[in-house]
Specification:
alpha+beta; elongated; 347 residues; 4 helices; four-stranded antiparallel sheet; five-stranded mixed sheet; single chain
């Protein structure tokens, strides 16, 4: 690093010759316990200006972010959202929130927070991920600043570009982003129709009651938007397993030709939130409950009848298995041992 020196005789700045720079050079990173010498201290006091500007490590890459007339003092990086978000405190106490977009290889300014009423020097800035907060230390106090102020976004377009936030169509507001929930976020390349499609595609949640356990229930999945990524049904944010079967071997879930969902033999364990999605968009949502019959006699007797039908199905299945085993024993007596439990193996 070349150091400049102001020559008082010529009133011009000149570069200091390398032979005149003390060793080790002032400003070097050294591991030593003794203080600097008087010679080094005098040299530092008389030569406070560098001849050349500080260059980045990779000269072909511009700075991630710069702003004329602003002095940045402190830097904290948060990566909890899956993106690198820079919180930079200025010499006046403002905090810039900037996101690095890896695909586009550039940054975007998201917000400028002003936690102080007047210019204030920030001596330290630390983050606490569990509290989702920054802590700013000044001469007189410590200030807590939330890293995600999602409620300040009143429009879907601005909300969807902040990695900490996402637009919740359920309540039409900006909320903290939570993975595996149907929340809409488009950080790097927001399309102009992104938020308008959310409103057109989304269907409000509906409550479906099944009063008689053992009944079936059908959910529809209709939308004005095209399902380019296919339709997927979820229960409590987990994809539904269409390979799941009932004790009688029949499927528990069935997908209809128009992408609807049928649930057979509904019981209390089937309570929950069901929704159909295509990519980012949620087309329909249902809340399935089993409130019981109460004082409704017709509902009570229908429940008893279904319970009887279920028991009869079990008996019929056992009887069919017994007939199958009996036929196998007559055909091959060596396979049938007295007192042994036999099962039917159909070809």
């Amino acid at each position: 690093m070349v150091i400049s020196w102001y020559k008082t005789r010529t009133k011009k700045w000149r570069r200091v010759a390398s032979a005149d720079v003390p060793t080790p050079r002032p400003g070097s990173c050294l591991v030593r316990n003794e203080p600097i010498s008087d010679e080094e201290a005098t040299f530092v006091n008389n030569h406070q200006l560098m001849a050349l500007s500080v260059q980045p490590e990779h000269n072909d890459q511009p700075p991630h972010f710069y702003k004329m007339g602003v002095l940045f003092d402190k830097l904290v990086i948060d990566q909890s959202s899956g993106y690198s978000i820079y919180f930079i405190a200025t010499s006046k106490g403002d905090v810039y929130k900037i996101v690095w977009l890896p695909t586009l290889r550039k940054t975007k300014l998201l917000a400028v927070y002003k936690p102080f009423d007047s210019p204030t020097k920030v001596w330290s800035m630390e983050k606490q991920e569990k509290a989702n907060s920054l802590y700013l230390g000044t001469d007189s106090k410590v200030v807590q600043l939330s890293m995600s102020v999602c409620s300040s976004y009143t429009s879907c377009n601005l909300c969807a570009q902040d990695p900490h936030c996402a637009w919740d169509p359920n309540v039409s507001s900006c909320v903290n982003y939570i993975a595996n929930r149907v929340l809409h976020r488009e950080v790097e390349t927001p399309s102009p129709d992104f938020c308008s499609q959310i409103g057109a595609c989304y269907k409000n949640s509906q409550e479906m009651q099944v009063r008689v356990p053992g009944s079936s229930v059908a959910f529809t999945c209709e939308s004005k938007c095209s399902a380019e990524n296919g339709i997927q049904w979820y229960r409590d944010s987990t994809p539904i397993d269409f390979q799941q079967t009932l004790p009688n071997g029949k499927p528990k879930y069935m997908l209809t030709i128009d992408n609807g969902l049928i649930i057979w033999n509904v019981t209390t364990v089937d309570r929950g939130e069901y929704d159909c999605r295509s990519g980012h968009f949620q087309f329909a949502e249902y809340h399935l409950t089993l409130p019981g019959c109460g004082a409704d006699k017709e509902c009570y007797w229908e429940t008893e009848f279904r319970n009887w039908c279920n028991e009869f199905d079990k008996y019929q299945q056992e009887f069919n298995n017994w007939v199958c085993v009996k036929d196998q024993c007559f055909n091959n007596e060596d396979k049938c041992l007295p007192g042994a439990q036999q099962t039917c193996s159909k070809p």
